[in-house]
Amino acid sequence: VQLVESGGGMVQPGGSLRLSCAASGFTFSNSDMGWVRPAPGTGPGPEWVSYINYGDDYTYYVNSVKGRCTISRDNAKNTLYLQMNSLKPENTALYYCARVIRRLRHDKYEYDYWGQGTQVTVSS
User: Mean pLDDT by 10-residue block, N- to C-terminus, for the chain (124 residues)?
Assistant: First the structure.
């Protein structure tokens, strides 16, 4: 299993980035996927930024990005995306793509594989 993120970078506040995650080694079209980042402060575990089910008919967004980010997937290309708009300095983080095993609650998921991450830095 391999997940390779790309698309991060440094942008000014208000800017946009499109993160991509190229998946291989498993049946991507049958897998729920998500984007995570380290939890702010000292919270345990990662913070789930967004989630999309394998059927592409259910998505989740953490409140801090809702309305500004869109998760999508292209099963033909085995690729997961996160379009990030109107970026704010507090969005600065290392973003990881993860394969979800099961939903634990509406804002937390169990996962088994993740990539190396792509850095998003929002600064003027």
Answer: 97 98 97 92 80 95 95 98 97 96 91 96 96
